[in-house]
Amino acid sequence: MLFPVRERFRLDEEFLAEYAGRQPEWGPLGYVTFKRTYARTLPDAGGRTEEYWETCRRVVEGCYTIQINHCRNLKLPWNPDKAQRSAQEMYRLMWGFKFLPPGRGLWMMGTNYIYERGSAALNNCAFVSTAEIDFTFSEPFCFLMDMSLLGVGVAFDTKGAGTVRVVEPQRAEYTHVVDDSKEGWVDLIRCLLDAYVGACKRPARIDYSQIRPQGSPIRTFGGIAPGPGPLIECVENIDKVLKPRMGQWISSTDITDLMNVVGKCVVSGGVRRTAELALGAPDDEAYLKLKDPEIHGDKLTAWRWASNNSVATNTGMDYSRLGAQTAKNGEPGYFWLDNARAYGRMKDGANWRDAKVAGTNPCAEQSLESYEICNLVETFPSLHASFDEYKRTLKFAYLYAKTVTLVPTHNERTNAIMLRNRRIGLSQSGIVESFERHGRRTHLEWCDKGYQYICDLDRIYSQWLCIPESIKKTSVKPSGTVSLLPGVTPGIHYPHARHYLRAIRLDKTSPLVEPLRQAGYHIEESVYGDNTWVAYFPVMHENFERSKTDVSIWEQVENAAQMQYYWADNQVSVTVTFKPEEAKDLPKILELYETRLKSVSFLPLTDHQYAQAPYQEISEEMYLHALSRLKPIAFQGLNTDEAQDLYCDGDKCEVILPARVPETPEFDFEQPEEAETEVASEDAGVPS
Description:
Helices cover about 40% and strands about 15% of the residues. The chain has about 700 residues and is of the alpha/beta class. The longest helix is centred in the middle third of the chain and has 26 residues.
């Protein structure tokens, strides 16, 4: 057991009785998203999954169980009465959607898996560099696969290009039996990759028979098994990438393809979703053309959709060529590595506290060292009436995130970084809604005062817990499924439209499919061959002011720069949408904002025709018609262990990954298509 648990924290039963059997004030897709994505199966309840009050209980009790055992193991003070009061307030804030743990936390916090196998599954994201593949070729790829199988999004760079030569694998006369576990899958990929650089021999035969069949329950981690198919395909695709390269130096293209092939394997399982980001050199012509459909159409549809591709840029460079390419399809994105190393919040000036940063995570809201992982937590300022109320929420959001850093992961190299940095990311969603409700200046004042408050909290709690202060503490994540629970706009983004269809993906074996179809929701098979169905939900955005089509590219970038100045000491993840006539401004924007941002990506507002895009605008008439066809959904008693959203929980990650495909047919709502089958002395455990 990686984190010995001697004592379990329990919330008071009388307190919990106030919530049992009740539902919170869900957003339009909140309950469906919760049941699909975060509700775990209850072992002694006839196979049914959690209701929200039970998930909040598991998460809060898990958080305080970690705290009490950390204190007990180190012989630190612990006050049970203060802890109970604190835990109850955390519960109330989660129930009222003032803050939420990330999806990883909603799914895994409080499970035995975390105590037995470490905290990796509680973390959102990671970064790994390939700069050392001449020393250990397979390790970065295996790290990506290992973490991805736990639902952690992983970004990587291409710095290892030209450092190792691909050779013809030597064969060994033995049968490699793949163990039915995450470790078993990773071990096979490690063996195959190392054989291509002469570090080991390739087995003559591979036996996949121990892998449980598709649809079987995964009892330790939770979810549904994908069967051996995705792994078999992964092996075949590794050969497709490396066999033609024998005798040649590994290239940035090879590195990206191998990472994408591994990512596709994880995604194709249809159970735990992940995200990838490639970080290449701005002058690497081959890398910049990886997603050109006229050159690499076959590989684009095969696996290159599996990562967003960005470049590590330098201040003072010429952005004209890169900006022109981004204007076409939104790639590459941009990450200013020196800014991430030198600065926390831009307001505070350069301090170089984070000089070891090597990259960023897939949605680019966290600065990270190689092999570092991080956890985020989401707050909703638009759902608060005053700064004092929001300040209270920040305390408990901080407390959750800091608690996660108390549990080591299963990876020693990751622990050596994570336990030193204690990096966290307190994020915000509904930022645009907060601008509208409170005013932009008021919101930014909340950010400035809130950040100072978080720094004060970190000094207090880190002293109590006898651990380092966090190297960085705030960010803006893109959000996605978590923001669907309260129904706020994700991260810093504007709403898609007043009326739209929101696509939600469901595993093909999901018991949710039939109740949704019976309730009148349109469902169709995924066109990406990822073992999922796609269900469409009609949504009307309340208190609608402006959509992304009504806001200029300049205003969106300025929003991100101000949040980077007043709030985020990590980064602001933003996908800036732009109209065709604004495309010419991209190089100038990059030049003007290169000292005010750490990362940015763009997406053209065109009829991109990506099939099954997560947001699809519809008319009011179509919305009302679709709504009229819907009936209540009968989820009672179902085992709804499910999946995360496709590839990432952010806007850009979902929209532009796959290759361009034919436009989705018009929906027939008359007859849905049939499917084929704060002060610490007040509330914390002890500090005063």
